[in-house]
Amino acid sequence: MTEPDDTTEARLRALFRAAASEIHPTRPAPRPGAPAPRTRRRAPLGLTIGLAVCVAAAAAITVVVRPWAGSGGVEPGNGSGPPGVLLAVASDGAVKLLSPETGTVVRTLVGPSPVDSSGRHLSRPDGVTAAAQVAYVGYLQPSPVIESIPFAGGTPTYVDGGVYPSANPDGTELALESVENSTESVVVRDLATGTDHTVYPSGTDVSGLSLVDRLSWSPDGTQLALGGFLTSRVPGTTRPPVVDISTGVQLLTLGAPLSATNPRFLGTTKAFPGPSRGTLTWTDAQFSGSGNDVAVVAGRPDSVCQAVPTSVLSVDPTTGRTTMVASFSFTVSDAVFDHSGDLIAFERDFPLSCPPVTTTTTTTTTTTTTTTVATMGPGPGVGSNGGGSFSSSTFSTQVAVPTRPVLYRWSDGTASRLASDIAAVTFVPQAGDPVPASGQ
Amino acid sequence: MALCQRSGFATIHGKLCVLMDMGQEAPVSLVHGGGGQNDTRAVLEELFRDSWGDLVRLATFLTGSVPVAEDLVQDTFLRYGSRRTAADEPAKYLRTSVVNACRSYHRRRLLERRHRPGLPRPDADNPGELWDVLDRLSPRQRTALVLRYYLDLPENEIAAVLRCRPATVRSLVQRGLAKLREELSP
Question: A8-17, A66-75, A244-253 — which is least confidently predicted?
Fold first, then answer.
């Protein structure tokens, strides 16, 4: 610097020094002695995950049409925004109500690492839903468990051993994936009597493979949208199922007997003998709050190492016709809709970077049966598949750069950041508005 | 829900994800001195450990918000980790990437504000003299001043980061200082 300006320069340096000492970044680093990996086995790669190309990608978002606009309710983006709040569970287990406009915390229901009425520390949330001013949150630790937490706050109360809770439109029943007794099935619990009714015995015949990862009620409460990893199994048969390694969506009509057409496939149900490249997969199925359309997140799992654009689609369950709601150049995992069915927020996932670090390949091909199942580590049950067989499982541990999702507000085709470190989120209308139909 | 918990990813230690690779083509490992995969991992981890805090502080000065800075730095690391080859000077490379990410962030925010004037400033929770004055600078001036007086970088290095001539850096710094002189003068 040629110009003598020592005072301002010195002052600025001092201010920087002082301010720098005040900034304490939270490093999302793995903690030593953290809980062991979840042993529950998952179906492999569904909607794959890409590395978002650039941080400015949010600006590159384009909205195509808004199929549910005009179906009643409030048009977002005109300054007033949707009434209601976002019910969000942070990665640390804290449950909060956020303003859908600014992301500011309206109320905290329970703080980080809540302790339930049995004295257990709850962590790793993976689903939230709400009905009648009560939040139902699914936690994975200490074991898969659903807890209820009133909006007024208080100690979480045990509801069931399960995951992915979804309250029905009038708040009398709770659909969930029960994982008690090592079986995983979709049950509907009567919240008044506490009785369970198994509606879909999924996963019980696939070495405990979890098949459902999103449940959503139709507005009239007669159907459940099941999002997850699908089988082509016809209930009642003993033939080993063919596991679709991509994700898809089924519609289950409650009260009707299970059959080849109930549940019926809604989208991307192709069964694959091997890795599914370039297939459009659907996930995150949710009934629209106002109509009967089902919203899904669609992506093309070409490679886990490249950016994978995702789209939010609206599907007419009767005709199967899809309409584009919004498309993104990065991976979206959770879409949030208000009660009029408009997309108001989404969660962007930051997948891990790609260089493979350690790769262990286990090849135990025994027959030519077309069942390929990747499992979560060498847990019990690997290699046994009820008469089928395994081909190969390759594990690739990714580079240890911790990631955390970011919740964005979506309005008028633009995205703005609302919060980060949110594990699950849903929209809750204010009192007097219809009860949300979507889960998680 | 974090994608870690679905789609074949699982979280361990609450933060790390393990991906079940179904045979996708992965880029070759970052090559650091011809080391193996474990070396690559160790190098990246070390880089992350060493520079996370510094990069977040830098991005905070550039954006005015710690959470935003953390997101941007996370993004930068992810992009760096997916490179096929290591940068010659990883620390410098990451620094430039963070500056660029912050620049994109400002561009995006300008765009958003143009469409929605009522949008709250994300750094509104950062009261204080420094933040107020930094906010009055153009993003480019702000970057130049932060690199010059926070990181104490020489002009030619700032020019490399900003992709401009050193003379431009000098002018950015001088104009920024001139603006600040009024604000900072007691």
Answer: A66-75
